[in-house]
Design brief:
globular; 4-stranded antiparallel sheet; 22 strands; binds flavin-adenine dinucleotide; single chain; 25% strand; 7-stranded mixed sheet; alpha+beta
Amino acid sequence: MTGFIEEKARNTPVHGEYEVVVLGGGPAGIAAACAAARTGRSTILLERYGFLGGAGTAAGLSNFCGLHANVRGEHRQVVRGIASEILERLRALGGLNEPHLIFGNRIQAQAYDISAYKIAADELLSAAGAKILFHALGVGAVMDSEQRIDALVFESKSGRRALRGRIFVDASGDGDLAAWAGARYEIGDGNGNMLYPSTMFRINGVNAEVAGRAWETVAGLMEEAERKGRRFPRKGIIVRPQKNPIEWRANVTQVRNPDGTAVSGVDAEQMSYGEIEGRRQCKEVFEFLRDSAPGFERSYIVEIAPQLGIRETRRVLGEYVLAEEDILGCADFDDTIGVQGWPVEQHAEGRVDWRWQRTGARGYNQLPYRMIVPKGIENLFVAGRCASMTHDGQSSARVSGPCFVMGEAAGIAADLALRAACAPKEVDVRALQARLRSAGVNVTGE
Ligand SMILES: Cc1cc2nc3c(=O)[nH]c(=O)nc-3n(C[C@H](O)[C@H](O)[C@H](O)COP(=O)(O)OP(=O)(O)OC[C@H]3O[C@@H](n4cnc5c(N)ncnc54)[C@H](O)[C@@H]3O)c2cc1C
């Protein structure tokens, strides 16, 4: 920064007044807006891009994690509710793979087509009656009091506007709204380092027959090249086929600042550097694959994701902070809102560390309602990767499955809070659990 300028006070037009205002259209925001609209509440979802899906589309993931668990050797889908509806819609569009196993037979994930996900999410929210406002960047909060948000301010091609709400759901991934409202949050591991981000890309023109199970052999090829002096952005790479096996997704990059720290998703200068560095890495690793991996000789990059994939920024402090021990010990909570089965997947410098649920444990943990209830703000929920978790807990519960769970609970809890005219932390959790069950959510995992 090189100083400050003073802006003139101005009147900001009120774009609309809604009972529930959701910021962000990733899995948490999709589920929150869908669930809130279905309760009959006037609901709007604000998204900076022109499509839904969050990192799942904008950062090119094309793969759901955390929906499934390894329950003592039996693989099953444990996240249901709105997540199941998304899967059904994707299947109907021909855009869903069968679940695949990773790490031998340790856990399942499920790949999807990115364009189909955008359409499935549009249709889901339209059918639920939620209004979507695309190309609108949230930029600030106007407060009624220190503890209450009156409006969310956004910038758009129509100008600067405000959205009044009674309940707000921060599903921005970055905890933007919570931070503007003055909620407390943490960033990183206590030493300032966040999970490292990655730029994803997809490859087309792969000869699937020749490539075979290349996901098992590419890491070996890279190690061999490293022994000869070549350097890659990270170990623990993922290359897997999409539904049509001529197309593969590549999760192989790791984007660091020149000083080695993780590029921050809430720093414009670092993000600008990171986008360029991420694409440079995509090119570098792709050229290695094309030149070294059998079946990739005639392949090409069909898409580099529109944005650098950010795994972690702000984590908002809530009534409970989900920790690694809750994941590894498969914790139960009286105020459970659903379950998730992903292990701890920590993107550390140059590598990915995995820590698994303890042997003999049932393979999934419950998620407590209190983790989506931020301290200090009376009409706000935080759902998704910015919910209340430690750095290590977030390394697991940030993936899509648990984000759907948190969002759906926030949407229904918003209705309960409005009915009872109470703050989120006073919502009747038994009533919430009953409503989640009747919506098809797997509340306890049994
Ligand atoms: C490279 C990478 C690979 C990953 N791989 C997987 C995987 O294979 N499977 C998996 O399940 N998970 C994966 N993840 C984790 C993934 O980030 C989460 O699963 C999930 O997308 C987080 O959901 P969310 O709804 O909390 O936030 P996000 O998905 O980040 O969505 C937030 C949304 O809010 C919008 N937004 C943010 N700020 C504003 C604002 N101020 N105004 C308006 N809109 C705003 C964003 O545009 C975005 O659409 C990966 C993450 C990364 C980065």
